[in-house]
Amino acid sequence: MIETLVPYRHPMPQDAASDIVIHDVVPVDEKLWVPQADGVSFRPLCLCASRGYWVNLLRVRRSGFLSRHRHPQPVHGYVIKGSWRYLEHDWIATEGSYVYEPPGETHTLVVDPDVKEMITMFQVNGAMIYVDPDGQVQAYEDVFTKIEMCRRHYLSVGFGESFVNQFIR
Ligand code: FE
Asked: What's the Cα-to-Cα distance from 136 to each of 126, 129, 130, 139, rounded to whole Å?
């Protein structure tokens, strides 16, 4: 018996955004990685300006202190390569781990010296608020600052100003 596969017969809602499909999630082309700091870069997957969140890979190729930050909204993480930890917790996010970071968390991200490279997919809602050990705000990132970083980087590597648009919804 041959199964008949039946697609949905109607158009998608007029106001629905288009889908995003990325096959090279961990890209070989170095230019797709947006430099963030010394030894730190990110690869955008979905920059959701309309809902105020972003999905990206964070890649770290140095060890030690990365950042201390507060999350006003939840974060979901999936470790693709290497490992990392937060000074405030006794667990280590190892390759293959899923991490849920609840709203209200403030934590200090470190990568241990034996880790040559870590790559983690994060879905970050709202903002990253960078703070000192007393919680004093030093800087922030949101989907709009991420978009701007991408736009500038992709322009500088010759991909053009509109290259980032494929990730924005
Ligand atoms: Fe975090």
From this structure: 18, 10, 8, 9
Over the stretch 128-161, which tens digit does the pLDDT of each residue have?
999 999 999 999 999 999 999 999 999 999 999 9
117 C-alpha to center of ligand 1: Å? 18
C-alpha angle 42-47-53 in degrees, rounded to nearest 5: 100
Name the residue ranges covered by the structural domains of the chain: 30-167
Superfamily covering domain 30-167: Jelly Rolls (2.60.120.10)
- Give the model's pLDDT for residue 2: 82
Cβ proximity of 105 and 70 under 8 Å: yes
Tokens for 125, please give them.
Answer: 């809602």
163, 154 Cβ separation under 8 angstroms: yes
Say whether pTM exceeds 0.70: yes
- Mean pLDDT of the region 95-105: 98
Cα of 155 to ligand 1 centre, how many Å?
Answer: 29
Neighbouring residues of the ion ligand 1, judged by CB less than 5 Å: 101
The answer to whether 118 and 77 are in contact (CB under 8 A) is no
